[in-house]
From TrEMBL:
Species name: Filobasidium floriforme
Protein name: asparaginase
GO biological process, one term: L-asparagine catabolic process
Catalytic activity reported: L-asparagine + H2O = L-aspartate + NH4(+)
A Pfam family this chain is assigned to: Asparaginase
Binding site for substrate: 91, 126-127
Amino acid sequence: LPLEARANSGNSSFLPTDIGLNITYSGPHNASLPNVAIFATGGTIAGSSSSELDTTSYTAGVVGIAALIEAVPQLLDVANVQGSQIINIASESLNSTIVLQIAKFANAVLCAEGSTTDGLVITHGTDTLEETAFLMDSVVNCGKPVVLVGAMRPSTAISADGPANLLEAVTLAGEPDARDRGALIALNDRIGSALYTQKNNANTINTFTAVEQGNIGGFLSTKPFFYYPAGQPTFKETFDISSVNELPMVDVLYGHQSFDWKLIQEAIDNGAKGIVIAGTGAGSLSDLTIIEVERLLKQGFPIVASTKINEGAVPAGRDWISAGFLNPVKARIRLQLAIATGLDMNGIRAKFENTLVGYLDK
Ligand SMILES: NC(=O)C[C@H](N)C(=O)O
């Protein structure tokens, strides 16, 4: 059957209909294939331009989920696919309300009792893809694969990377060997752990890397393989968001010479419930900043020290709360979750530093 006739012809839905999830794509059903849900959120993978040479001034978040899937009919040979267009925007415009909703949908779709969904793919802009991936890694933990995927070239570009990335992501989400590895990022024939992988180039398709920690696998002829047996990264922490209805405002302040420590109080006055400082080195903060950070920590205001350096960790056992190996945007999400789940200062510190003690407190 042509794809359009096959789409929406299936009547064995595996996505729940009573959770407020709007099912906007439903492919045919084949009992021998895994059930993979797709949540589409926009980004360059759904981007469009009038010129196929344009990879910089296109509009992100234009193409809908059905058109994305229709561009890759091979998808329907590797999985039963049902999807929801959660939103269609560039990922720099996503906010905590939307990503928390996506996480709740992900838990409902994958982890509710009786779920027959085998894996989930989230199509996403690459600019903040690592943030949503890290959130999923922290809060969706029933073993089933959650795979984040995007593209660096819009769908209209010559050699667009979205279709192959999407096919590989859906294949990965339906792969039993992808279970129990935490959330995964799949782009450019590589599989990375959401805890460590980050975007490292603003333009090129090989942008997602975890140089120190490495990829956990890759794809050959679109089929996934893994270098290591299933397992979770050492410094992972999980959170139960079933009673979390909003994520608090947490800001990231960027370290540099002449850093104005008074910005910390200004962020608090503006509503921040926690702050991450992207320090200049291994958490290094200027003398005046440290005095201010100690004052606020003593008052019970959580401040986490991360680093603006791309690789490496901030040691634990210091006056600040250490982000360990988490880069600033991931430390921000962990702090949001720690505050939202009601942890006190000791609990917050433990969520950041428990797994570091003995490793990074020397
Ligand atoms: N490559 C991309 O997807 C970038 C885009 N600005 C986004 O994050 O939505």
